[in-house]
Amino acid sequence: MKKIEINSERFDNMVENIKKYGGCPVSATLKIIGGKWKPLILYFISVDVNRFGQLQRMMPDCSKRMMTTQLRELEKDGLINRKVFAEVPPKVIYTLTITGENLRPLFGELRKWGIENILEPKKKS
Amino acid sequence: MKKIEINSERFDNMVENIKKYGGCPVSATLKIIGGKWKPLILYFISVDVNRFGQLQRMMPDCSKRMMTTQLRELEKDGLINRKVFAEVPPKVIYTLTITGENLRPLFGELRKWGIENILEPKKKS
DNA sequence: TATTATAGTTACATTTTAGTAACCATTGTT
DNA sequence: AACAATGGTTACTAAAATGTAACTATAATA
Q: Do A113 and B121 touch (CB under 8 A)?
């Protein structure tokens, strides 16, 4: 009986992903970018609204607590970088990672579908 | 002072959408397709796994109750049609609406990003 | 007569997510 | 001495999402 060889680190990763996302890449993606404030946060960071306080002022309905948890999740999922400066008062800036930048075409499609099908749907005479 | 004319039905719709989605087409889209089982349900319906029981057998971890609520929301949001046949035992089939079909390119992007960035990310040597 | 099949509904319990408000540390300013 | 500015954390509460199990209807079948 022939054995299959597979990089074990990669295998663990696959198992982990199947557990987390059911192995479906669409569900995986939605889980990662689908947080209540994540699209907006990613958008603002992408246009250099990149500090905690700035983000808060742009999204006054997102509480500090929510802002923190959303940012931490985005960081954990590898979409943003968090850079802390050793200053007082504290200074932290957020930037998109490559993975985060890779979202651009996807956001384009999400936006397009939303506009054409939800926000400005063609009236069916 | 000049008045702006606008179709009032359309205006009400815009107000409604801003309330529901904050006017952001990306959030709007994610809200509609982001339900726990919705991508999978839409996928199965798109490949003609189109009856309640069939869907359940494909997704055993989705309870009847969840299946029903997800299907009802998809219907309400105009992504699927529900056709009831007057038979015993009951027969219901689900199909994608045009709006639902319009999701295809978007799902393509979601899938692509998920594969390239989550499920099979290139190792950064 | 009991059972099967389909497509659900309902009540209730549990889990997850999100909101609120108070608190923290440090330095500079009034 | 008190307060502002920044970027949070923490405990507690409220609300929303989801799970579980029992129940529904009707005709055909064993």
A: no
Tally of CB atoms within 10 A around B108: 13
Q: How confident is the model at residue B46 (pLDDT cuts 50, 70, 90)?
A: very high
User: Per-residue b/e over A55-65, b at no fewer than 16 CB within 10 Å?
Assistant: beeebeebeee
What tens digit of pLDDT does each residue of B66-117 get? 999 999 999 999 999 999 999 999 999 999 999 999 999 999 999 999 999 9
Architecture of domain A37-119: Orthogonal Bundle (1.10)
The fold of the B19-119 domain, in CATH, is Arc Repressor Mutant, subunit A (1.10.10)
Which residues from chain B sit within 8 angstroms of residue A11, using beta carbons? none
* Tokens 């494909």 found at: B58
